[in-house]
């Protein structure tokens, strides 16, 4: 049986007012969540893309955006996160 899953940006905002990238998997009874990236960027996990490797483990490509208010510049970085077998 296939299980629905998603990689997404969590905008619930933590104490530090930062977004997080999360992976969610429905196990048949409830959704289970794993934080993939919460590095401290203002916007972790924008523009996500989810696929699976040859072993069936999740691979998420996503964008991280850093804003420098002093220089008034924006830096965008592409990151890839890979799941690990347990």
In short:
By secondary structure, the chain is mainly β. It contains no helices and six strands.
Features:
86 residues, mainly beta, three-stranded antiparallel β-sheet, 0% helix, 59% strand
* Morphology: elongated
Report low-confidence residues grouped into runs of 5 or more.
Answer: none
Number of helical regions:
0
How many domains is the backbone divided into?
A: 1
Largest sheet properties: 3 strands, antiparallel
The helical percent reads under 10%
* Multimeric organization: single chain
Look at the helices and sheets and give the structural class.
Answer: mainly beta
Identify the strand order in the major beta sheet.
1-2-3
Instruction: Write the H/E string, N to C.
Output: EEEEEE
Q: What fraction strand?
A: over 45%
Computed over alpha carbons, the radius of gyration is 14 Å
Task: Report the end-to-end length measured between terminal Cα atoms.
Answer: 19 Å
For the secondary structure, the number of strands is 6
Report mean pLDDT, rounded to a whole number: 79
Task: Give an overview in words.
- There is one protein chain.
- It contains no helices and six strands.
- It has about 90 residues and is mainly beta.
- The protein has one domain.
- The strands form two sheets. The protein has a three-stranded antiparallel sheet with strand order 1-2-3, with no helix packed on it. A three-stranded antiparallel sheet has the order 4-5-6, with no helix packed on it.
- It is elongated and about 45 Å long.
- The mean pLDDT is about 80.
């Amino acid at each position: 049986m296939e299980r629905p899953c998603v990689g997404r940006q969590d905008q619930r905002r933590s104490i530090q007012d930062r977004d997080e990238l999360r992976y969610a998997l429905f196990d048949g009874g409830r959704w289970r969540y794993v934080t993939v990236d919460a590095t401290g960027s203002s916007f972790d996990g924008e523009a996500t893309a989810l696929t699976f490797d040859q072993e069936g483990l999740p691979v998420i490509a996503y964008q991280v955006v850093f804003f420098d208010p002093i220089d008034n510049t924006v830096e965008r970085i592409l990151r890839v996160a890979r799941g690990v077998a347990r």
